Amino acid sequence: MYCIVDVETTGGVKGPSRITEIAMFRHNGHEVVDAFHTLLNPDCPIPPFIQHLTGINHQMVAEAPRFEEVAHEVIRMSQGAIFVAHNVAFDFNFVKKELEWLDHPFFRRTLCTVRTSRKIFPGLPSYSLGKLCNSLEIPLDNRHRAHGDAAATVQLFERLMANDRHSLIPRPATLL
Question: Residue 55 gets which letter from DSSP?
Fold first, then answer.
């Protein structure tokens, strides 16, 4: 199993920054079998730059659940799965930080679609999600929002799997 994830946040991984939105798609290697998406109340200010980038503002998250209210769903969705994201260190470390603040250690194998794309599709002009999706003709709706970016990453992941001639991506049978 794979868990394809994207988060939007109030800033960088270091320090008190929090997640404002999370989208997760559980994938069995052939298709999406489960999905979870929600805005999150970060209980801290969302900087103007982030509001402008994501479109997520204080009013949108005021009545949203806090991370601790959805932590069980994050754990369930990613249990027994490889954690997949575009620039996986960012998304994984944010989820890990939020769970560790709740005294729940978080260990998952990870797969970065940026690094994997560079190996499977060498020579493209850019490996940023937007430009990579453009190069590969993958639709990317609602850019810089967790659901839109994660949905595009699902399609990118499927394209990577279909073109993985050197077994760079562990297959479900090898996950045991």
Answer: -
